[in-house]
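Re: the request from the purification team.
They wanted to know what the chain is likely to look like in 3D before they choose a buffer screen. I agreed to run a prediction and write the result into the notebook, where they can find it.
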Amino acid sequence: MKKIAIKTNLLGRGETFKILAVGHATGYPVLLVGPPGVGKTRVLLDYSMGLNNGNAIDALQHTFILETDEGTRPAEIKGRVDMEKLLAPGIDTATGKNLTPRYELNSPITKSKMILINEVDKANPGLRNSMLGVMNEKMLFNGQDKIYCPWELFCASCNVIPKEEANNPFWDRFVIKHQVNRLTKTQLLQYFGKNSKAPVEINLPESNDIDTFIASDINSDLLRSFLDVTYDILSDRSLSYIPRIIAAVAFVFDVNVKKAAIKACEILAGPERAKTLGTKLEPAEISNIRNKIEYINTLQNYDQILNQIEDIKKAAKAASVLDSVTKVDLEDLAKDLNKILSKHPVYNAGLPQDAVSAN
């Protein structure tokens, strides 16, 4: 498994970077949905730079970005004729004879590892159709020509998915959909006052990591519960991707298989379905404590964080006497709490360096 260190000026986009990593690890297309100006393009560029050790030139050389509107033509995807090879092919240095003119397309998308199609909701049907082969088969189809597209991450963005197109199969091709929201006022104040930002560290599993996890950790009972919650709203295409997405989420988000399944459900089917799955996979008391732990991420006051920790400890003590709650459940919660606290800037700013973790 690789580790990526992403240097970014963006704030509050750790979740989005992880979503990109899930798409990268699985090879499934990602759709970023959000209003203008929230950094949807920047987050992909920063992710690409992280993969290239911060080298902006290498990152841009391997990244294809297309800004679309109603008038964008399919040629922007398929490429344009190389006029030099067609009209002035030159001379063969070995024989001294004129080279035969060739009809050849110059297609930058076929040479890119990272692809971002911006404002894809505004793309016309012709442009969308030209994207499908690149998305699905990683092939650019142009008449009899078939050109392999070696992309590692295919990403598109839009402000909203048009309501009248909600059932259009085009949107179902984006297996992973992620809402990118505006920063809160508190986050903006933090952004204004913080000049240097620590790199965002991301786990990136490889294919054999995912295969091993599926074989050893994902069982039929978990998949059955997942299907019970999502079968009525996900297509067969999306449902077929469940095991690989769960495995990728487990590595990227550094969580156990149950939490990975709940997070995968949130990605594929939304937060309400994820809550429903959570009630199937773990006791309500554990879900309640987990929500309390995650709420700490939103707190920007040290005393509020301490009060929340005490509330969590009381809830964990009450849950520990229940037959439905295991020692492993409580140990996992303790790990989650300490992980959040170790990365929380407000909490760490208020503690001495030798402070003990919250158990």
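For the purification team: Residues 2-71+112-184 form a domain with the Rossmann fold fold (CATH 3.40.50.300).
Please add any questions underneath this entry.
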